[in-house]
């Protein structure tokens, strides 16, 4: 699918998008959120949370938005993903975003979601990185899989956009622009998000 077809003008999004976010409402960050955890046949390693900037740790914040609870809002410039809650709150997660030339904006829906997904690099990526051709048939799930522990697949107009919200074993990449357009979260965070979001949830991606 041509990604250009998915790109939305930011002016159209701004009209209904982010309305504002205030200071965090809690000073403690889910103390055990980043501990090692058993997950099926895999064990997610502990994340050294002291090395993760506080702004990118999962936390509850005050959040002023016209979007309904259950909506996911991706604030690309600030490297945050918000899951809108009731009563003017949101769960905020730190994210890694697409590097220059691979960023996108617009609205989509969560089409489906997978635990420990298989990663299949798209053909344009294989052309850029021929060494990935060995994964053309898919890379098996696991602790080193680029999609991490969970993936939420984004649809628009009944078609797969090619973009995902997914985990990553590279927690150091959170807060940076390194991906080929997908939105990545720390594995413990994507497990938490996965458990809170159902297929059909609205996703709004903002670039400015």
TrEMBL record:
Biological or metabolic pathway of the protein: Cell wall biogenesis; peptidoglycan biosynthesis
GO molecular function: glycosyltransferase activity; peptidoglycan L,D-transpeptidase activity
Active-site residues annotated for this sequence: 166 (proton donor/acceptor), 182 (nucleophile)
One GO BP annotation of this record: peptidoglycan-protein cross-linking
PROSITE patterns (UniProt xref): LD_TPASE, PROKAR_LIPOPROTEIN
Alphabetized UniProt keyword annotations: Cell shape, Cell wall biogenesis/degradation, Glycosyltransferase, Hydrolase, Peptidoglycan synthesis, Signal, Transferase
Residues of the signal peptide: 1-19
InterPro entries: LD-transpeptidase, LD_TPept_cat_dom, Transpep_catalytic_dom
Keyword Glycoprotein found: no
Matches recorded under CDD domains: YkuD_like
UniProt keyword Thylakoid, yes or no: no
Domain L,D-TPase catalytic: 70-206
Domain of life of the native organism: Bacteria
GO cellular component annotations of the record: extracellular region
Family indicated by similarity: Belongs to the YkuD family.
Name of the protein described by the UniProt record: L,D-transpeptidase
Source species: Roseitalea porphyridii
